[in-house]
Amino acid sequence: MSVLLEVAGLTKRFPVRGGAVHAVSDVSFTIEEGESLGLVGESGSGKTTTGRCILRLVEPTAGTVRFRGRDITALGRRDLRAARADMQVVFQEPYESLNPRMTVHQIVEEHLLLHRPELSKADRAAQVAELLDKVSLRSEHGRRRPHELSGGQQQRVGIARAIATDPAFLVLDEPTSSLDVSVRAQILELLLGLQRDLGLSYLFISHDLSTIQYSCTRVAVMYLGRIVEVGPTREVFEEPRHPYTRALLSALLRPDVDQSVSRIQLEGEIPSAITLPPGCAFASRCPVAIGACVEAVPELRRVAGDAQRAACLRAEEIPALMATPGPG
User: What is the pLDDT of residues 178-188, one digit of tens each?
Assistant: First the structure.
């Protein structure tokens, strides 16, 4: 597989009175053709801002985003609009992202009007019907407005709109978190099926570790705007090398009721995103922090082989220092 998306040094600061909120700090990763990268972390960790910066829905403060080798951050408005046909987003709250005054047909057709102006009205109608069928909606749904649909149906409309331009890459921003459990499973299966059929690559943003474990080939863990661990999903879940990842996974429900896992309770205050402390931002809550942890920001370095990386000075010692979460 070849690299589709390359993010390097991505940084976003939001100016506020007295300073700036460090929402995303020096984030780097790649996504290959057909791959799903899960982005996890607590609320406020910078996951959604990272996704929006990649698409330039929010302008980055620094860093580059290369899509198929082309620097998205350097594009002007016209070129950016053309590039967005290949890079789309599915939002967390489907109803809020759909125009309540438009029918489902009009919502999906709007993207075709913007990115495929050469299509005739009849061709657009045929395309919309095909897209609705791909997301398991009937033609009659095209005549309805968003408030006449269930939450799951609304999200299917959002997905149909996202794939209307035949993109290669989707940012999935908590696409199932606002849905009922049974509907979540249906939407997740739909997304995985579309990925197989259309060859899509995903940045899957979620706080739901079970969803990421099931749907993503690799996972990146964020804390206060930085990636603290990244690697193949199975390896990270079975043997995390950062204390924060370990704490997150200790809260994950296990299918084996006989498997005893100690919940890691994090103590201490979360640092302010305006006045980040020197060194590791997790040090104030870390149960195994040492003096050196507050002296410099730890590098995201390779541990446990070539694929897994962690930003922790004690990464090699973590399995022995902290309880093992065990496989999910």
Answer: 788 889 999 99
pLDDT at 219 over 50: yes
Query: Edge to edge, what strands does the sheet with 36-40 contain?
Result: 87-90, 169-173, 201-205, 36-40, 218-223, 226-232, 308-310, 301-303
**pTM beyond cutoff 0.90:** yes
- Which amino acid does the sequence have at 298? P
Which ranges constitute the DSSP H helices of the chain? 47-55, 77-83, 94-97, 104-115, 121-134, 151-163, 181-198, 209-215, 233-238, 243-250, 318-321
Burial class (CB in 10 A: 0-12, 13-18, 19+), 183: middle
Contacting residues for 50 by C-beta, under 8 A, at least 6 apart: 7, 10, 12, 24, 27, 39, 205, 222
pLDDT for 254 equals: 57
Per-residue model confidence as pLDDT tens digits over 146-193: 999 999 999 999 999 999 999 999 999 999 887 888 899 999 999 999
Letter for the amino acid at 318?
Answer: I
From residue 314, how far is each of 228, 240, 288, 291, 320 by CA, in Å? 13, 12, 8, 12, 10
Full set of structural domains in the chain with CATH: 1-86+171-177+191-322 (3.40.50.300), 94-166 (no CATH)
